[in-house]
Design a protein that fits this description.
heterodimer, A: little secondary structure, 2 strands, disordered N terminus, B: 3 helices
Chain lengths: 57, 178
């Protein structure tokens, strides 16, 4: 087994800014729901950063 | 922000017995100067490609998709993944793409980020909005599950493929989408 299999995030000097993140205990199961929403051309045009050139138009 | 990609190379293509509806996985690697990263592009039914990346030194770590490395090079890594997506689109013009914004996990503190609208999801969404237009792809997002899909406009109605793709995601990530 690789020596990295027991790697802890502390070993990676993890820092995590929790200001903008909703944190939950790790023991809480991940059960997200929700539906996919189609994004309109107008919405995409309004939110995109126009300083960037499209890689794919 | 995403204009300085690392130089990447295609390392391998894995086929067979991959399970979870994966047809094959294309492996790319790149070096950041401090460590090597692995990019796995998984190919699923309906020509969907899901892009994942992690530091090579963490390849056997359970939370390899959830950690923060404090290297502060996320924009360059994401830029590299965007260029990989661009290269795949040139080879496969019918490709569809997607990503899951994995929640950050701090196992030593027994905490993790909630699944809805994660930090990664917000950043990747910003990249997709800015670099992939609406001419070639139709964009869909599920904020609650932090999943984003772009479906090719040139091969049928994307709205017809969307429910099929959503069901496929439920099968692939049952813990994520109910």
């Amino acid at each position: 087994m690789s020596k990295f299999s027991t790697l802890k995030s502390a070993d990676l000097k993890v820092k995590f800014n929790t200001r903008n993140a909703k944190m939950v205990p790790l023991t809480v199961p991940t059960k997200a729901v929700g539906t996919f929403v189609k994004r309109t051309k107008e919405e995409l045009n309004s939110v995109r950063n126009h300083n960037y050139k499209y890689l794919i138009p | 922000m995403f204009d300085s990609p690392f130089e990447y190379r295609k390392a391998d293509v894995r086929k067979g017995a991959l399970g979870n509806q994966i047809d094959y996985i294309i492996i790319y690697t790149f070096d950041t100067g401090k460590c090597r990263y692995i990019v796995e592009v998984e190919h699923y039914d309906h020509n969907f490609y899901i892009v994942k990346y992690y530091p090579k030194k963490c390849k056997n770590y359970k939370y390899r998709f959830n950690i923060l490395t404090s290297e502060y090079i996320a924009p360059r890594i994401i830029a590299t993944c965007l260029r990989i997506i661009e290269s795949i689109t040139k080879k496969d013009p019918a490709a569809n793409f997607g990503f899951v914004g994995s929640p950050t996990v701090m196992p030593e503190m027994n905490w993790r980020e909630g699944q809805a609208n994660t930090k990664r999801f917000r950043l990747y969404k910003y990249a997709f909005e800015s670099y992939f237009g609406h001419e070639m792809f139709t964009h869909y997002m599920n904020v609650v599950s932090s999943v984003y899909l772009i479906i090719n406009n040139g091969f049928g109605d994307p709205d017809d493929l969307m429910p099929v793709a959503a069901k496929m995601f439920v099968d692939i990530y049952p813990e994520l989408l109910q």
